[in-house]
Amino acid sequence: MDTNRLSQTLASALNEQMTKEAHAAQIYLSYAAWADSQGFGGIANFLFRHAHEERNHMMKILEYILKRGAIVKVTAIPAPPKDPENVHHCFEKVFEHEVDNTKAVYKLVKMSLTEEDWATWNFMQWFVKEQTEEETLALNLLDKIKIAGGEKINSDALYTLDRDLEKTPDDARLAQDVTAENP
Ligand code: FEO
What we know:
Layout: H1 8-37, H2 41-67, H3 87-115, H4 118-147, H5 155-166
Helix pairs in contact: 1-2, 1-3, 2-5, 3-4
């Protein structure tokens, strides 16, 4: 009896998405290290926390593939891109990466719809909601920076932004405990 409940196509697409989430974690990790090295401890805190969230997303997909009786393939994670040029550029790239990830999530939703795999379709809805929130968060931060001068943001505004992001809680939840409200 075949206990695998995922098609070959969906299993491979989910495995790819799992690696994509791991890649997102590496990107946030490298940006966080860059921010810290520039003296922005608050921005670094925000980005480190987000790296952890992305890793949770990776785990969430890994657990789902296993739960559906399919094979998980852990592969190499591509290297993150080079460091951003400044804080404005950093959040522009963050927004771009999130939009790119949203497109990949939508592709999976479409595939599950075509295959009438309602379990996967339902599972992916969590990611659709999560991506909307992440895009909004990145966009809001980008807007704040733009208002404060974009690339020419002054040191006072940077100080305030850094201090605000310092207050973001450090704790990140385990993959099995995450919800759309608390990713
Ligand atoms: Fe898990 Fe920000 O995508």
